[in-house]
Amino acid sequence: xxxxxxxxxxxxxxxxxxxxxxxxxxxxxxxxxxxxxxxxxxxx
Length: 44
Prior knowledge:
This protein is mainly α. The protein has three helices and no strands. The radius of gyration is 9 Å and the shape is globular. The model has no long low-confidence stretch (mean pLDDT 95).
C-alpha cells in the first residue's frame, strides 16, 4: 500500500518519530493515523 507523504508528515509532527518508522507504522495500520500512533507507542 502506498502511503501519502502528507500522512507521514502528520504522524511525524504528532509523534516526533523518524520518517521511516512513521512510514512502516502507517503501512502496518493500512494508513490509519490513530492506529499508527499506537503501533509506534508499542515499539517504544
